[in-house]
């Protein structure tokens, strides 16, 4: 009988990803990961060469948020792996499903303090769901299969596979690729009757929706339930748009930076149905003491009066036919509650106010996806934007690193080629990952970068002036951003007057090409701080 030719673990890993339908891998090559790159050379999967490993993770993160499928990123050992830590922590805080693959020094040199040897798993363990050192090829096959299964059926977040270079070169029997793996998902329905009883008796219910609704692909189920039972909906930041914010049942964001109406509902409801969210300290700012039903796959975050560890989609199926009381009076009360947030944007003089600039960007956005970086502009976008569709406002909420926006936009654009992508980034965050303009140009992605230039680290300056006796080390001596973008072969222009931003954005989107718009704004304008 003819024996089956064995294949290298590196080839097997790529074949499994092909079978899983992976289209893109974001990475940066290095010595210890080269066996995987040799396999990718022959693969249908497109490798996206990012200019920094942090950018590779942010791009995979953006891809995952926009496609609602796991993102894949790879890098070499030592410095390559550690450069990924910022992006991995970002994904971990927001429960973004990523598969993070790193090469490592050969097994016989691990722990010997040789060139680029470091305990990568010790670094990644606290910022991932799992971090594995794969020292046997058969184990590598099983783990990557279990990783895909876990991210499809369980708690989401980054899972790290660290593989020494010699292990990647070892051979496995290709029959292992066809063997199935199993995962025991824990679902607890013992309190479902009590949940149904609370729903039946509630006169002032509130649906509080988190990003778990997106990852369980339960947007339609949540919308149908809310509309069928006429229950108002508030969201956490990453779930904005799960129900369009112009819908009569939508109250918008709840908690810190939340709308007055959503926070009023959170404090006056007689029942909170918290679905697929963490109930973070920022969300709890908008809640009081109403009984809370908390549904999440992640047992460690459950914090309600009744806790259901379950998939959101399955849970919605369980309660969909529960009879409920009329909410007409409750909805009328919420509709008449003063929801005005006093944010003036009609400034018509220069220097251009940042809130006016953001208002004009949003006015020209159309159906584009907006990717936010971290900085004072983030607050203005949050306060001024109405989000009409899920995954149309993308921002790293839980960790909030500067430099997220531009590389994340690469992943978003590849995930949604039918959409233009607009990045709003400050001059501080822009200079953290500006090298990824090279990737945008190389791939000819229709990404517009709106660079808000206030020549400072604005929020930090504001905190210093309020509490620390004045600004210190926050003034930025910036380059000529238009020339910099042009050097990366992007079209670029500068605007600094009211009215010009809207025109520049609308004209720029018509190009359907990479573009940078530098927007010079008043460096002394402060954001409203949360109370």
Care to describe what's here?
This protein has 531 residues and is an alpha/beta fold. The chain folds into three domains: 7-178, Thiamin diphosphate (ThDP)-binding fold, Pyr/PP domains (Rossmann fold); 192-335, Rossmann fold (3-Layer(aba) Sandwich), CATH 3.40.50; 354-520, Rossmann fold (3-Layer(aba) Sandwich), CATH 3.40.50.970. Helices cover 38% and strands 17% of the residues. The protein has a six-stranded parallel beta sheet, with helices on both faces. Strands 11-10-9-12-13-14 form a six-stranded parallel beta sheet, sandwiched between helices. A six-stranded parallel beta sheet has the order 16-15-17-18-20-19, sandwiched between helices. Helix 1 crosses helix 2. It is globular and about 75 Å long. It starts with 6 loop residues before the first strand and ends in an 11-residue tail after the last strand. The mean pLDDT is 95.
Short description:
This protein has 531 residues and is an alpha/beta fold.
Write the layout of secondary structure elements.
Elements: E1 7-8, H1 9-19, E2 24-27, H2 34-40, E3 46-49, H3 53-67, E4 71-75, H4 79-82, H5 85-93, E5 98-104, H6 120-124, E6 130-133, H7 137-153, E7 158-164, H8 165-169, E8 171-172, H9 192-201, E9 205-209, H10 212-215, H11 219-229, E10 233-235, E11 250-253, H12 260-268, E12 271-275, H13 281-284, E13 292-296, E14 306-309, H14 312-319, H15 328-335, H16 354-364, E15 369-372, H17 376-384, E16 393-394, H18 405-415, E17 421-426, H19 427-433, H20 437-443, E18 447-453, H21 458-467, H22 481-487, E19 491-495, H23 500-511, E20 515-520
Parallel strand pairs: 2-3, 2-4, 4-5, 5-7, 6-7, 9-10, 9-12, 10-11, 12-13, 13-14, 15-16, 15-17, 17-18, 18-20, 19-20
Antiparallel strand pairs: 1-8
């Amino acid at each position: 009988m003819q024996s089956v030719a064995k294949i290298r673990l590196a080839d097997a890993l790529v074949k499994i990803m092909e079978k899983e339908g992976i289209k893109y891998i974001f990475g940066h090559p290095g010595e210890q990961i080269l066996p995987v790159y040799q396999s990718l050379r022959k693969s249908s999967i497109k490798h996206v060469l990012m200019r920094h490993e942090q950018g590779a993770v942010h791009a995979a993160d953006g891809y995952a948020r926009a496609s609602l499928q796991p993102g894949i990123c790879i890098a070499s050992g030592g410095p390559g792996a550690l450069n990924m830590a910022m992006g991995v922590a970002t994904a971990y805080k927001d429960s973004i499903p990523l598969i993070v693959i790193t090469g490592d020094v050969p097994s016989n040199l691990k722990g010997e303090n040789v060139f680029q040897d470091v305990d990568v798993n010790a670094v990644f363990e606290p910022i991932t769901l799992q971090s594995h050192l794969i020292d046997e090829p058969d184990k590598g096959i099983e783990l990557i299969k279990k990783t895909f299964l876990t991210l499809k059926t369980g708690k989401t977040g980054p899972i790290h596979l660290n593989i020494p270079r010699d292990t990647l070169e070892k051979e496995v029997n290709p029959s292992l690729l066809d063997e199935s793996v199993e995962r025991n998902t824990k679902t607890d329905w013992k309190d479902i009757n009590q949940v149904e009883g609370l729903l039946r008796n509630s006169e002032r219910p509130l649906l509080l929706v988190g990003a778990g609704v997106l990852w369980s692909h339960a947007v339609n189920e949540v919308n149908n339930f809310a509309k069928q039972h006429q229950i108002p909906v508030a969201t956490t930041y990453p779930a904005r748009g799960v129900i369009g914010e112009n819908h009569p049942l939508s109250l918008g964001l709840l908690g810190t930076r939340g709308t007055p109406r959503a926070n009023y509902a959170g404090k006056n409801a007689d029942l909170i149905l918290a679905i697929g969210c963490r109930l973070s300290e920022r969300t709890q700012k908008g809640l009081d003491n109403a009984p809370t039903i908390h549904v999440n796959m992640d047992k460690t975050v459950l914090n309600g009066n009744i806790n259901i560890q379950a998939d959101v989609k399955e849970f919605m199926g369980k309660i969909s036919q529960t009879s409920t009381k009329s909410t007409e009076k409750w909805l009328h009360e919420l509709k008449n509650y003063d929801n005005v947030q006093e944010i003036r944007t009609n400034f018509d003089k220069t220097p251009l106010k940042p809130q006016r600039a953001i208002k004009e960007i949003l006015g020209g956005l159309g159906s584009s996806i907006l990717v936010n970086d971290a900085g004072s502009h983030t607050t203005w976008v949050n306060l001024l934007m109405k989000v009409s569709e899920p995954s149309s406002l993308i921002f790293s909420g839980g960790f909030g690193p500067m430099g997220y926006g531009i590389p994340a936009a690469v992943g978003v654009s590849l995930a949604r080629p039918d959409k233009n992508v607009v990045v709003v980034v400050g001059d501080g965050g822009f200079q953290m990952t500006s090298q990824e303009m090279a990737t945008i140009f190389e791939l000819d992605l229709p990404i517009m970068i709106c660079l808000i230039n206030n020549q400072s680290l604005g929020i930090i300056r504001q905190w210093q002036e309020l509490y620390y006796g004045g600004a210190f080390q926050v003034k930025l001596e910036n380059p000529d951003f238009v020339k910099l973008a042009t050097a990366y072969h992007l079209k670029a222009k500068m605007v600094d007057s009211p009215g010009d931003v809207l025109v520049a954005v609308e004209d720029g989107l018509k190009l359907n090409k990479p573009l940078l718009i530098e927007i010079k704004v008043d460096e002394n304008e402060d954001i409203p701080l949360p109370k």
